[in-house]
Amino acid sequence: MNVNLTVNGETLSLDVPPSTTLLDLLRDRLGLHGTKEYCHSGVCGACTVLADGKAVSSCSMLAGQVDGADVLTIEGLTPDEGLHPIQQAFVDNFGLQCGYCTPGMILLAKALLDENPSPTREEIIRYMGGNICRCTGYAGILRSVEAAVKERGSWS
Amino acid sequence: MCAATGPNVTRLVGQSMPSLEAPDKAAGRIEYMADLTVPNMAHAKVVRSPLPHARIVSIDASEARAIPGVVCVLTRDEVRADPDVEEVYGFVYRDAPLVAMDKVRHQGDIVAVVVADDVDTAEAAAELVDVEYEELPAVMNVPQALAEGAVQVHEEFFPIAPELRPIEGTNVCHHATIGCGDVEVGFAESDFVYEDEFLAPPVQHCALDLHAVISQIEDGQITVWTNCQSPFPLGRELERIFKMPARVIIPYVGGGFGSKSRDRIECVITAAAKLAGRPVRYVMTQEETFMTFIRPAYRNRMRTGVKRDGTIVARHNEFWVDVGGYAISGARSANNTLKVATGPYRIPNARVDCYAVYTNKPPSSPYRGLPTTQHTMSYEAQFDRIARDLGIDRLEIRRRNLVRDGDIHITGDYLRSAHSHECLEQATEAIGWDEALPVDPEGKKLRGRGVSCTIKYTLTPARLMSENSAEVALVENGVFEVRIGTVNIGQGSDTVMAQIAGDALGVGLDAIRIVHSDTYRVPVDSSTTASRSTYHMGRAVVEATDNLKPQMLEAASQLLEREAASLVFTPGGIAQADGPSVTYGELVERVGSPLAATGDCVVGGMYAGPDGKSYPIASTFWTFASCAAEVEVDTETGTVRVVKAAASATTGTAVNPHSIETQLEGGIGQEIGPTLFEQLVWDDGGQLINAALLDYPLPTMETMPDYAPRYVDHPFEGGPFGAKGMGEIGSVVVPGAVVNAVYDATGVLFHEIPLTPHKVIEGLEGQR
Predict the structure, then answer these.
(1) Which end of chain A is more exposed for a tag (fewer CB within 10 A), N or C?
(2) CB within 8 Å: A87 and B23
(3) Which CATH superfamily hosts domain A2-76?
(4) Considering CB atoms only, which of A94, A124, A137 is closest to B18?
(5) Do A98 and B698 touch (CB under 8 A)?
């Protein structure tokens, strides 16, 4: 089947088997390995990407469901030089250890800050509670998102 | 300008800095196993046993082989037909066949490997492999496995490590004892004797980076890419099995927590690659990881004799560890914790019995501190019962018994850097131990605080030997390449090694490049386990720089035509005071080739005590820690929430302080799962019913307590710049503190984790 979508600003028209998930499309077809897989059941959030600005588990979406959508992955968030402020906040605040959940966490934080530029700590916890990290105990991630919120005014 | 830098000059050590690779991780640019490919590779799917224990009657793979795109199917027949392949692997306990030979020993045991041009074809063909089983009675837990007349999971035992001793004719694949004094005399001298039994069910590590391997055989040489934590032992095992040289390459690893500490799939996938005549890639599913390695079921029966004032006189500790169907990892792990089962206390008469028992569960592996975590929960929960019974303050009873420097441990070790008292004080102070607890006006939510203390060992050889080496090389452009076998699993090892190497050489971080864990590019290392790398690899790195410096001085002396003794190292090169100088880049360019030296970390042997006596070294260093936790128990729903959790550990010199704090936070946060809600559950038919993450809750940001990570950073004699390891210690102390906090809140002492709402309600009702 044919799927038309925008990935990281690039308009694509792809012929894919109907069973292709968005995760397969990104990783196997487009070679965008920054999107990770673990549970393959929409629970862990390692495969989180933004589709039309909303955080979705790409393992649990068929490519056909994102027909016409604007998809952002970690590769698209990363500027040509340096890092996006949210990424920088994760680096500076020890918001990552093994790094495997990190792209999904950062995109989830991006969706949160786009929806709600000044979330309270409770709102951050509720929103970010959807993704699993096994290394940090989440404290560094919370500090990172809070730091990004503080800096929110300085980036568009 | 500075003189040759030694361990006295630190500019990088002691500084908090994000990991070197953090920007690439934040950008999603780091490649993990599942991101790697090699040319012409085929893809594997594994046919796994649906039954926990069965004899294999027949395997018919003809239908699978006939599918277009299928390259080959590896079964016991192909393994037996190849005279150049050994059938059984395991470098600690040699009991695991590459694929099941006569029988399967756990649900998920590997029966066949289907190799195809793509994953979907391999998966479809795997469905068509027809295996006929004759079901055998299964022993699904330790009591069943130890019962009179129980079926034997293995008829023969093949321990490799010399300390492993099976009991023939039983399912006990290892039994060992350690002791001091005379426990019977000790119990006779005690005013009171307490006996308790504690239980902890299996859980899985849930490292998000799925276990995966690529194996390639080319020109008589194996190359394996894998996320295993023991590249060198794995390489040697591959060479033994396939009788050809093997190179093992480990990329960045997305967590392991012990689940990747030993091999389980590398040998079988290499056999598949040999049969296929092509490189083969295999990535597990999350469900398959639950059938591969798990934290073992644990049971501890503990008798403790005390004086009226709470002084411990005697302790007998028997513990059983369920190693599952294969002892490749679990038996030695259990044995290692003999050394710490009695806790960080002065006990004149002690005995510990360790039993590692085969069952038909998946194999067990260490989990962030082995069963030290469960030991700690056991002796700490019992200690609170004793304190309450004797009317002694919980902190005071610990203070009366905690070890100090110069005490002799149950192993005979002379304890050094044993700041157990400081850890206890730091942790309790950090959560406001003496402050009044909030009171729920409706009386439905109860608050309480609990504390636990522990002692943890690190992997230590029985005799004097080098456990690992490092190589440091001055290469092009004046860069110092630090070549280490340590696997970067997220613990921050590259950064710590760069800090140590930078200070040892007197250069900045930008002059350091870490090369890690490729057995053909770095010198030998035993494993990245047991919190051992900072100390062991750090020491090897310092020694390598010590060995490199004379070479650099000699080369500079010739170039500058000055006496070597008149030259000094500077951050940028080598110089004579008020005289000529050469940069490191010029030096390597003028010499025409890299200058390189190795360093070894020799450990084991005996310790010469300050009293002139000689003491054994059962652990190169001991880590002490305490956790203090505050909980809230909802008496209507049974839900336990950890509100605050502080952990304090002896780290020696803190090489990267903020990294230590975040390791502690991560350890606490992870262990909240097994303490409160994680457990693997099998039904009566021996089927694991919650192998999918949908049915297996993990800690999230919503279960996160307020953390207070602390450390006692007195330099440890012998450590690199005085450092010790600490990667696992944060989790080890959690269940004990939480169980005791719930005891404090409710008056009910739970003897089994996890503290699920159901269990808590039952406990509260039992009290009424």
Answers:
(1) C
(2) yes
(3) Beta-grasp domain (3.10.20.30)
(4) A94
(5) no
Measured distance CA(B110)–CA(B87) in Å, rounded: 13
Residues in chain B: 768
For A:62-101, CB contacts with B below 8 A are 73-75, 78, 83, 87-88, 90-92, 94, 96-101
Q: What is the mean pLDDT of residues B56-64?
A: 98
Please report residues of A whose CB lies closer than 8 A to that of B254: 36, 98-100
Q: Which residue of A has its CA nearest to B20?
A: A91
Answer yes or no: do A97 and B208 touch at CB < 8 A.
no
Are A71 and A5 in contact, with CB atoms under 8 Å apart? yes
Q: Is B255 in contact with A41 (Cβ distance < 8 A)?
A: no
Domain ranges of chain B: 403-460+617-767, 465-603
Of the candidate CATH numbers 1.10.150.20, 1.10.443.10, 2.30.110.10, 1.10.150.120, the domain formed by A85-154 belongs to: 1.10.150.120
- State residue B7's pLDDT score: 44
Tokens 């300085």 map to which residue? A154
Q: Which CATH architecture has domain B403-460+617-767?
A: 2-Layer Sandwich (3.30)
Identify which of B629, B662, B634, B658 has the alpha carbon closest to the alpha carbon of residue B646: B629
Q: Is residue B667 within 8 Å of B728, Cβ to Cβ?
A: yes
Tell me the pLDDT tens digit for each residue of B310-345: 999 999 999 999 999 999 999 999 999 999 999 999
Write the residue in A43, A100, A132 that is nearest to B694 by C-beta: A43
Q: What is the DSSP string of B421-432?
A: HHHHHHHHHHTT
| CA B321 – CA A85 distance, rounded (Å) | 48
DSSP-assigned letter for residue B701: G
Residue of chain B with shortest Cα separation from A140: B662
Q: Which residues contact B457 (CB under 8 A, 6 or more apart)?
A: B336, B337, B339, B340, B372, B530, B618, B619, B622, B623
Per-residue pLDDT tens for A74-95? 999 999 999 999 999 999 999 9
Mean predicted lDDT score pLDDT of chain B: 96
Closest residue, chain A, to B697 (C-alpha): A43
**Which one-letter DSSP state was computed for residue B673?**
H
Set of chain A residues whose Cβ sits within 8 Å of the Cβ of B701:
124-125, 128-129, 138, 141-142
Q: What are the start and end residues of each CATH 1.10.150.120 domain in chain A?
A: 85-154
Q: How far is B15 from chain A, CA to nearest CA, in Å?
A: 14
Residues 6+ apart with CB under 8 A from B656: B15, B16, B17, B492, B495, B496, B499
User: What is the tens place of the pLDDT at every residue in B166-219?
Assistant: 999 999 999 999 999 999 999 999 999 999 999 999 999 999 999 999 999 999
Instruction: Quickly count: other Cβ atoms within 10 Å of residue B100's Cβ.
Output: 26
Strands (DSSP E) contained in B521-656 are: 567-569, 573-576, 581-583, 595-603, 606-608, 614-616, 623-634, 640-650
pLDDT per position as a tens digit, B627-675: 999 999 999 999 999 999 999 999 999 999 999 999 999 999 999 999 9
B465-603 CATH, one of 3.30.365.10, 3.20.20.80, 3.10.129.10, 3.30.450.20: 3.30.365.10
Is B18 in contact with A35 (Cβ distance < 8 A)? no
Cβ–Cβ gap A134/B22 under 8 Å: no
Residue B362 banded pLDDT, cuts 50, 70, 90: very high
In chain A, where does DSSP find H-type helix?
22-24, 74-77, 85-92, 102-115, 121-128, 139-150
Q: Where in chain A is the domain with CATH 3.10.20.30?
A: 2-76
Please list the residues that pair with B603 across neighbouring strands: B465
CA distance B32 to chain A (A): 8
User: What is the distance between the alpha carbons of residues B327 and B158, in angstroms, rounded to a whole number?
Assistant: 9
Region B134-157: mean pLDDT is 97
